[in-house]
């Protein structure tokens, strides 16, 4: 099937050549604000997703307590650290991986891509800004849910000053990696129109290999190697492991460097995929 979208065939000059730098930035912020407000209108979906988040924290806490079976440590890791890891990864995954990853699929189906292309900023930038705005709508609800999450699960202070300083950087890196993955998945709709099936499979694979359910240090050898070579571990395991001191010293710089490398690689891949997707829009509109 082909996407029912139309767009003018005239190529516009780059936005940076036509307007001051501040204007595109304001346009991106407007896209983010629009999606932020749209996300808050889906109150039932948000409340149900946070209820499921609290349920997941409770289930993971119960499972890890049962697996430890009264032992103080397993492989050098205490139960408190493990339950804190489960609580932290579930909370941060709710932020970096919202229940809707990208608006692209809907805009392709409704033919609104043509309107998006007329805007003074690039389409991938619009969509990425919108995704970040949608994800940021989780922040106020997370703040409300945090006391309940800590009551059900467990909390722990950063392992060190370096861990406390590096954690926000790692969390930002996790957010950008995940949003770029969502952007790529959304652009698949230019060829398929429908990505719901792929999204379900993606969410399962991403959550497992990210370490959101089972930390990488407990994974069997071949699976851990695969997880370390995939970008998903940068979205959950890396910030949590930095916060809890499982990654420390020079390892923190290496972990942040890996996140940065994935951001660059996924950004380049997104630009390449968009160059192909744009041709499909133009050929249909021309």
Helix content: over 70%
Largest sheet: 2 strands, antiparallel
| Strand composition percent | under 5%
What class do helices, strands and sheet pairing give?
A: mainly alpha
Instruction: Flag low-confidence runs.
Output: 1-17
Rg over CA atoms, rounded to whole Å, is 20 Å
Helix segment count? 14
| Structural shape | globular
State the total count of DSSP E strands. Answer: 2
Strand order of the largest sheet: 1-2
Protein described:
By secondary structure, this protein is mostly helical. Helix content is 72%, strand content 1%. The chain is built from 14 helices and two strands. It has helices at 15-18, 22-41, 43-68, 79-96, 104-109, 113-117, 123-136, 138-152, 161-187, 189-192, 196-209, 221-229, 237-243, 250-285, and strands spanning 73-74, 77-78. The protein has a two-stranded antiparallel ribbon with strand order 1-2. β1 (73-74) and β2 form a beta hairpin. α7 (123-136) crosses α9 (161-187), α9 packs antiparallel against α13 and α9 packs parallel to α14. The longest helix has 36 residues, at 250-285. The chain is globular and about 60 Å long. The two termini are 18 Å apart. Residues 1-17 have low confidence and may be disordered.
